[in-house]
Design a protein that fits this description.
Length: 78
Amino acid sequence: MKKIKVLGSGCKNCETTANLISMAAEQAGIDIELEKVTDMAQIMGYGVMSTPGVVVDGHVVHAGGLPGSDAIKKWLSD
C-alpha cells in the first residue's frame, strides 16, 4: 500500500490534487493511504515552498500546481 500525502492549505488545487490521486488509484486498482496535511510547519518540514505538494512513501515527488495524469500514474506504479 502506498502512503501518499497531499500538502497544502486546503485550497482548490490541493483538493483537486487529492481527488485526482484517489481516482487514478481506484482506476488502477491500487490501494493507497491518502492523507491531507494542512499544517504549515509540517509542510515546511518537507521543504515544500509552493503547494500543492505530494509526498509518496516519504519522498516529495511534486510541488506547485496540479500534477499531470502521467505523473500520478508513475507515482502509483513505482
